[in-house]
Give the backbone structure.
Amino acid sequence: MTSEESVLASVPKQLYIGGEWRDATGGATFEVEDPATGKTLCSVADASPEDAVAALDAAVAAQAGWAATPPNERSEILHRAFLALGERSEELALLMTLEMGKAVAESKGEIAYAAEFFRWFSGEALRLDGYYKTTGNGQSRVLVMRQPVGPCYFITPWNFPNAMGTRKIGPAIAAGCTMVVKPAHQTPLSMLALAKVLAECGLPPGVLNVITAMRSGEVSAPIIGDPRLRKLSFTGSTQIGKKLIAQAADQVLRVSMELGGNAPFLVFADADLDAAVEGAMLAKMRNMGEACTSANRFHVHESVAEEFAAKLAARMGALTVGRGTEDGTDVGPLIDETQQGKVAELVEDAVAKGATAITGGTKGEGDGYFYTPTVLTGVTPDAKVLVEEIFGPVAPIATFGTDEEAIAAANRTEYGLVAYVYTRDLSRAFRVCEALETGMIGLNQGIVSNAGAPFGGVKQSGTGREGGNEGIAEYLDTKYVAINV
Ligand code: NAP
């Protein structure tokens, strides 16, 4: 068998419920596609709403025992899983590339990033705290304890099939919560492989349950509507996030929402342009542009815009587009035909309104959903590419004159996930950072994701934080006891 075949064969294709791998009701399955060829890779179980409830039953049954499991044990399972992901990085990366498309080197980067959440939260499991204090009048005492929220439901997207899972699973395990996870239908295999790793690392049955499904709305509704569920955490589009927040209102669930972005990348006249181009390549091309943190639009000071555009186009134009499994590939296919069509349409719209594609601007060759790395200059304010999340390898460049114009342009969006700022002027850097309406900022840096930092957005990019000191709080309830002494 080739390694592709053996990696595919090694992944369970069933639902993982209560520590057992089982078929979906009636043996229903759906097909998983390779976006580089458009061909079917394999089939996986297609959960029914009844299967979804069975997964929640298992999470509920395991909750009390898991909450009572010593923090040392929860921490050690996470640490073993951190090491295991590192040891199996090659096979997990290949699996991810097969179903998602990105180059194997990038998939390995994601496995390393995903594993970091297990390392970080294995430490956090040992630092769950509370406090005790005397009230102001000295007459009673305040005892504050933190307790696991309870059974959680996680819905994850296809763009980071492993890391968007571990960002939720890691803190839930650390805090003592059980969970049901539903990955995106395009990339179920990475999550099934992750469940297998966690089981092998000693995670007890029922703590993590995985359902794969084509009808995500139908299988999610009974879980979200079930009074035994305590928390919903979602990573995906703002459009679906809004629907889920409305559904979660019925049970007054705690919600964490990691939603869409429209990140501005600001380059001021005093910036180190080579560093800015380097940062732009990371911020734009990580994951082929299919990241919520992707630089969606470049606002560059008019005095340096031409030079920046030429340098960026030279770097973007030199990238090799191809199947992610092939050596030398920098840029894999987009996830599917719909996404490829959307990127093409945004570029056509910008060009029709006066922009110029100084590199790229076309679909790639072959049966897969490729799109060539593209730099657009002279993008007009009415171009859709500046307003909508592109999710592809396209860098539209617009210009500004003053700092105020740059800040106003950056904030002209309903999103507020991340922004990138390139300047060597310290006062300007602080002024701009304070004025930007975002949850995160890359200051002279093209990447912000880090397990030890609070990831998340403001405005319609979401609510809640994943990672950092804040990440564990999403999985803990605060209980206060007033003590009469
Ligand atoms: P999506 O369409 O919102 O899907 C995300 C997940 O939600 C998938 O598992 C999907 O399952 C599921 N889903 C869709 N409709 C649902 C429903 N009615 N009920 C319950 N679940 C439902 O987003 P996407 O296109 O896969 O992902 C891209 C989006 O995610 C972008 O907007 C990106 O910015 C955002 N994102 C945000 C972050 C962040 O941390 N802020 C990180 C990564 C991605 P099916 O697809 O299988 O139906």
